[in-house]
Amino acid sequence: MTGPRAEIGVIGGSGFYSFLDDVTEVTVNTPYGAPSDSLFVGTLAGRAVAFLPRHGREHHLPPHRINYRANLWALRALGARQVLGPCAVGGLLPEHGPGTLLIPDQLVDRTRSRVNTYFDGEPRPDGARPGVVHVSLADPYCPQGRKAALAAAAGRGWEAVDGGTMVVIEGPRFSTRAESRWHAAQGWSVVGMTGHPEAALARELELCYTSLALVTDLDAGAEAGEGVSHAEVLEVFAQNVDRLRDVLFDAVAALPANEPRTCPCATALAGQAPGIDLP
Ligand SMILES: [Zn+2]
């Protein structure tokens, strides 16, 4: 592939890259269809970074309609091996109120309608036939990416929560109070709508994936009031987008070089027969 290359991918909206002055818009097609939008490649702290608006630049894609396979594939095709996934979440515990930044170390999948693997046994339109592959997702996030994100937050005076479980719901509706109380009773920390299958697909492509979860509201069960409103989520996100961008950019600078990667993400397919060539 000719054109701009990137070593790091960021899945997040235009609030993160719109003011960079050397951004190039790149259209990437994948065997899985089109990503959410063009990829925007720019330089940050000497690192080439590809930004991909997860919901499209007009924010027209709800979480369950995002082509997660195309998104991760496109990032890898541009050269990215490390991916940062900032996202808005609801806090399930009173101590994780709006404005909390949490770097999760665990994930629970409560989605139900999403294509969540590249290894579905179905021949692709280009004739490639994926093998039967089972990757480990015991630890769904990259240990080195998490370290970089936590250090970046600390460096900006934002004490991020180190670890916790993100439960990912199908959406697009928010949880009922009973669902929310149940999630909290399991000991889970935050609830989101995009963290799965993003993390699982990244692992299948041997990408390093790190989630940066910004709490924008207390989820229904953790709150006595009216429950979550979309307006509230947008407002808190807007209040925090500048400092989240600072942390994100510092994390980009702190990520180790792409090769050789020493974390287990880099060898997730070792010993298996994927049947498809990774880009
Ligand atoms: Zn890794």
From TrEMBL:
Binding site for substrate: 193, 217-219
Pathway the protein acts in: Purine metabolism; purine nucleoside salvage
Record keywords, A-Z: Glycosyltransferase, Purine salvage, Transferase
Cleaved signal peptide residues: none
Substrates-to-products reaction catalysed: a purine D-ribonucleoside + phosphate = a purine nucleobase + alpha-D-ribose 1-phosphate
Binding annotation for phosphate: 14, 54-55, 194
This protein's record includes keyword Disulfide bond: no
EC number(s) stated in the UniProt entry for this protein: 2.4.2.1
Pfam families assigned: PNP_UDP_1
Complexes and interactors: Homohexamer. Dimer of a homotrimer.
Record-linked NCBIfam families: MTAP, PRK07823.1, PRK09136.1
Role summary: Purine nucleoside phosphorylase involved in purine salvage.
Name of this chain's protein: Purine nucleoside phosphorylase
Species of origin: Streptomyces millisiae
